[in-house]
Amino acid sequence: MKRVAASLVACLVLAACGGSSFEQPEPVAPDRAGLSEETLARQLAEAIAYPTIAKAGEPGHNAEVFAQFQAFLAREYPRVFEQLDVTDLGHGTLWFTLEGSDASLDPAVLIAHQDVVPVEPGTEGGWTYPAFDGVIADGYVWGRGAIDMKGHLVTLLAAMESLLEDGFAPQRTIHIGLGADEEVAGIGAGLMASWLEERGRRAWFVLDEGGSLVLDMPLTGRPTALIAVGEKGYLTVEVTARARGGHSSSPPQRTAVGLLARAITAIEDHPFEMSLEGGPVDEMLVALAPDMEGLQGFAASNPGLFGALIVDAMKDEDAPRAMLGTTIAPTVIEGGIVENVLPQHATALINLRLHPRTSTEDALAHLREAVAGLDGVTIKPHAPGSEAPPVAAMEGRAWEIVAGAAAAFAPEGTPVAPSLLVAGTDSRFFAGVADNIYRYSPARIEMEDLSRIHGTDERMKISNLPVMADYFRTVMVEAGTSGAE
Ligand SMILES: [Zn+2]
């Protein structure tokens, strides 16, 4: 008994010293523009009415619609378009510069994408209001892009417009970047990053979409300001199985199709490590712990001590598991042309989402190890992958601004929690030119509404819009007036 107690004390001391620590950010003073819900809702509704759908592999697709959308933005936010330096980087990408008085300070970069995904054919009838009508009803603005991400885009521009109206002249340069192909390629975001790189500049921080104020956070059921400090990398591999061809009446023991099936099974049976290492999940748990019940809360507040138990509990469910490691999803399979001919090869595509601790090279090596015993199976990248960007700092002045403003615009007592975005955003293209990448908008959204993104009946609560504008305004004021660290 004594020994157990002693070791528990030792563990707790260890957890306190060596375990993860995370401190809630101090709320910064909110800087409010006082914009009306009506004006912002109308702007978002009009923005939705431009069906800015990009198409993979066709950079000029819908160029006319994007041009009209940009003309609309220039009418709504005249100061932004007249007083800031506006550069057309190509591919529909707009890059705004508000030059600061101190050129030695690294710029703050706030980005948003103009493009939206199309409505899946056949699902149009499921929408309460047509996806591209931009209807204001029942306290919401309805339509494709309401959350992803024209709500973010118009409130960001409205915030800058209001600052310019007040004569805002920052010390630190502020850029706003509006890409036009996030959903299909991210060429625009790459052009923005190149613009900085060519000038030998680094962004102090980049703020993009990817986190919000989730009202019913799954682990706690309570509101949480979820700031994504990391996101996953991406790699699709092609698995090919080769075997003898010929007549199917005298087959070899393993045909190419059978061999491919074995290869896929071998890969699924050789999962990547699931752990709290190298990602922000342990800090997230520490942040959420006070809102979690009993033992669960105690374990979450001590991830250094109970890491293995937490990982075991999380990895049974798909969404939490995706935050703990690199995931494997066989998505496409092809092989054989007719039933009585032995195929000489069969292929499968497997989509991997890379945890920040797994590089594309590590991932390939891991998969090749899984199929090492299968003669005739080869694995290669289907297309160049993208590495997960580094996890951003959860301390320091840039974090204090982004997270402190999140705290300032959250309901009293709401925890700010860092998280790992399991999807990808435009911001990943800044990995080489930015010190920190954060993904957040203070929109208060239920999980159910988040599931409408890319789906049916996407909508944004009108009451979110002034809060979002004020959040972006506060971040830009704080960044603009913060000197060197
Ligand atoms: Zn998006």
Automatic annotation (TrEMBL):
A Gene Ontology molecular function term of the record: metal ion binding
Keyword terms: Hydrolase, Metal-binding, Protease, Signal, Zinc
Signal sequence extent: 1-23
Alphabetized Pfam families for the sequence: M20_dimer (PF07687), Peptidase_M20 (PF01546)
Sequence ranges assigned to domain Peptidase M20 dimerisation in this UniProt record: 229-372
GO biological process terms, semicolon-separated: proteolysis
Coiled-coil intervals, chain numbering: none
Family: Belongs to the peptidase M20A family.
Name recorded for this polypeptide: M20/M25/M40 family metallo-hydrolase
